[in-house]
């Protein structure tokens, strides 16, 4: 087992605690080597039965970004209807939920449930483990972005069919995330949804049970 130095350990926790979801980007390009490091971090993630169900589509082209931004905006407007007439309506309309047009790069992370064939160790018991594995890869990439001084924003407001059409993704492959990546001048120290009074972090001790569901530690 590798032992981290105190400084290395602090670095890991710093990345975990300070990483943020970002939606405002500078247009400064990202060097290809740096982008590749993010992908390597993702590809080093754990996966059920080591199936590595992910693919990464790198999007830099403005036309494609415009198409993606348009379907995200369509979904945002559809969701806005749910908040019409409620006390959250104005807050929702104020929220920025994507920075696709600004960010120099969007990465579409996909999950192919059949990437390792019909029988994958572990996946046959819980099929969603392929998606869970892909999420682990994304979190790795998010932390690597933080380490590289980059910002990342996870965009999930879209219909999968729309993303498949725009990016030519086969119907059996799941577009799990659109990740906006770029440099930013605006890296908040708290989640944006907390800053905008939408939601706040729950207390950890209220989420922890001991021994069985609902039991608090004495
Ligand atoms: C699966 C997933 C989907 C998300 N989708 C969106 C999204 O579509 N738009 C958005 O603005 N943020 C999205 N987020 C970011 C969350 O809003 C954010 O992680 C949360 O508010 C906590 O903030 P933090 O990541 O800065 O700690 C998503 C996060 C996850 C994990």
From TrEMBL:
It holds the Pfam family Nitroreductase. Keywords: Flavoprotein, FMN, Oxidoreductase. Gene3D superfamilies: NADH Oxidase. GO terms for molecular function: 5,6-dimethylbenzimidazole synthase activity. Residues 17-183 form the Nitroreductase domain. Its EC number is 1.13.11.79. PANTHER family: IODOTYROSINE DEIODINASE 1, NADPH NITROREDUCTASE. This is 5,6-dimethylbenzimidazole synthase. It comes from Peribacillus asahii. The gene is bluB.
